[in-house]
């Protein structure tokens, strides 16, 4: 089976409070984007995982794909498989790429081997692998709360608009990014603000990581500003960085403009 785990962006990210378990409760809109890895899962004599493309830190037993397989294999009689990942989504980029790979393994094993794991149970498995992971089980625009792993439907349709993702190659650790944050309630209810015209978002839809990370990495703020100068309706950092995104009314080719960085651009669904 061949699947294409895709990235996500965070449209708005309020870090509301620190939890007793050390994590943070957040409020965010998660939106799928087309920057994708490719993952092939085939029957084999023994389990193996290998990856090509962007080098993933850690060895194959640390990989979230391996962890997802082992977790399901602990509860279901799974045959051995060979997994081959072509890694394209930048790492430490706020795009949830590792989480997407893991969620797609859960979904692919369920389908390929007819395991009949319910949707709710797939979500529970995904939550065990990472806060971002559960989103990729449904992989539809959603308002996310708690650790980012509880969802409500959101009335937001950006279909037809174009997104440009710019990754400057800085690897920002999620743990470090959260450690710099002083949580606070947001001034604006994200649900309501996202119903306003996209041109208003610039003033009201904030990613709380920007205030602490932009002073440390000024390049991030410069790229966001450049996206606005190029005509973005809305621009922001995704997750804990380091990827910036711009949403444009029409197709936009900024590959040359951001020639020093990794750029992905395409339509939103
Ligand atoms: C920044 C976001 O990408 C926004 O979508 C996510 O909140 C991060 O999700 P993730 O990468 O799946 O994070 P996890 O692998 O679950 O956690 C990594 C570390 O980030 C911190 N963490 C993560 C999620 C969360 N809601 N609060 C946290 O404080 C914790 O220190 C945790 O040990
Ligand atoms: N399949 C995988 N792809 C990418 N990273 C992986 C994978 N498996 C394990 N990891 C580990 O997860 C870490 C970061 O994962 P990921 O790419 O999801 O982070 P991110 O882009 O910062 O996402 P976010 O902050 O939005 O969760 C890496 O340091 C890497 O060691």
From TrEMBL:
The active site is at 8, 132. Coiled coil: none annotated. It catalyses: 4-CDP-2-C-methyl-D-erythritol + ATP = 4-CDP-2-C-methyl-D-erythritol 2-phosphate + ADP + H(+). ATP binds at residues 90-100. It is an enzyme of class 2 (transferase). Residues 63-137 form the GHMP kinase N-terminal domain. Its EC number is 2.7.1.148. It holds the Pfam family GHMP_kinases_N. InterPro entries: GHMP_kinase_C_dom, GHMP_kinase_C_sf, GHMP_kinase_N_dom, IspE, Ribosomal_Su5_D2-typ_SF, Ribsml_uS5_D2-typ_fold_subgr. One of its GO terms (molecular function) is 4-(cytidine 5'-diphospho)-2-C-methyl-D-erythritol kinase activity. The keyword Nucleotide-binding applies. Pathway: Isoprenoid biosynthesis; isopentenyl diphosphate biosynthesis via DXP pathway; isopentenyl diphosphate from 1-deoxy-D-xylulose 5-phosphate: step 3/6. Residues 209-253 form the GHMP kinase C-terminal domain. Keywords: ATP-binding, Isoprene biosynthesis, Kinase, Nucleotide-binding, Transferase. NCBIfam families: ispE. Belongs to the GHMP kinase family. IspE subfamily. Catalyzes the phosphorylation of the position 2 hydroxy group of 4-diphosphocytidyl-2C-methyl-D-erythritol. This is 4-diphosphocytidyl-2-C-methyl-D-erythritol kinase. The gene is ispE.
